[in-house]
């Protein structure tokens, strides 16, 4: 019995010892597992985009952390336009010794942009492979933000993003309209337009906003101006309801100016006129000849005084149609309009800018292939010098920028689909410009346009409402 009991006891001890060892092993395994999970959490890449919500002309900051040191990654942006087309941009980066990539200080080594470009993921956007040709982004519903999905991918990728799983993703909203901005439809005296009013009780300095012959009526620049403290009225003048182009003459713009000037929320006689392309030609003509339109200042983007608009738009288009043989087409079958404008018999009909009595800002790109911006600016300067009002003229000429100088960080469109207003023919219009210099022009010009308006309309430095 003694030996049996001892053997049994020894066996029992061995079982207890083995069980203790197994428990210790399990505890170690669990600890290793927990440490592994903790390490995985700690090394999971994090992507931050700040601010998550902001105005289109507000810069954002992108930062990626928790990457392995010296890892190659791709920052990628994706946007679906109001026309349901997808646009993308991407840059190639390498994380630093801390495993971080910071978009506002690190350099992109390649992609749709290179160098230190905090906003490159916006202004270098292009249609994704397989998209329709000749696309252009035009915001139609300004009360819906431009949503941009920003992702970080492992490696330096240039295609096939939809087939890859991103390491991290974030969505940022870019708004054309600040909180509190009001939109008012203008349907008065046959005038068709949209007035945007800043938050508050007013009155505000006013801007009459004239687009060019780009197609559909757009409101986003006026909405952005209102977000900066100006009562801005986007005027529809090419296809207004109940009107033909024969009716769209000087009196139409004078009525619109009066409606804006007499609005109770607008600071009377503190108005500017801002025009792009054909809108600039109209602005110059009204400022030179109208006895009704007496702006405190004018801004002309990519315009020309060589387009005679003293009568009706239909007469201007008939004149251009008669010179259609002067249109040039490049090797890519893109239409260059500037030569047609230069061919117009304008020496006797060009706008006499020597009559202008208010400060005038010209914003041009020297690679404008649509209007002769460089030649026009030089001639206008000489005309105003001869008339004694050259001191009123300020010219911004941007190297390698094209015709479509839009609000900052908007993608660059060198050539897009277009319908000629005077023939209704569908073409591809060459606007000109190179992507990076054009992006710089848009950012710098917008700041200087706002400063110019603030200076001459006595507007506050900024009245943007935070999101």
Automatic annotation (TrEMBL):
Name of the protein this chain belongs to: Acyl-coenzyme A thioesterase 4-like
Originating species: Cyprinus carpio carpio
Alphabetized GO MF terms: fatty acyl-CoA hydrolase activity
Residues annotated as domain BAAT/Acyl-CoA thioester hydrolase C-terminal: 249-458
InterPro entries with a match to the protein in the record: AB_hydrolase_fold, Acyl-CoA_thioEstase_long-chain, BAAT_C, Thio_Ohase/aa_AcTrfase, Thio_Ohase/BAAT_N
UniProt cross-references to Pfam families, sorted A to Z: BAAT_C, Bile_Hydr_Trans
Family named by the database record: Belongs to the C/M/P thioester hydrolase family.
Limits of the Acyl-CoA thioester hydrolase/bile acid-CoA amino acid N-acetyltransferase domain: 57-188
GO biological process: acyl-CoA metabolic process; fatty acid metabolic process
Cited PANTHER family: ACYL-COA THIOESTERASE 17-RELATED (PTHR10824:SF36), ACYL-COENZYME A THIOESTERASE-RELATED (PTHR10824)
Stretches of the chain forming a coiled coil according to its record: none
Residues at the active site: 277 (charge relay system), 368 (charge relay system), 403 (charge relay system)
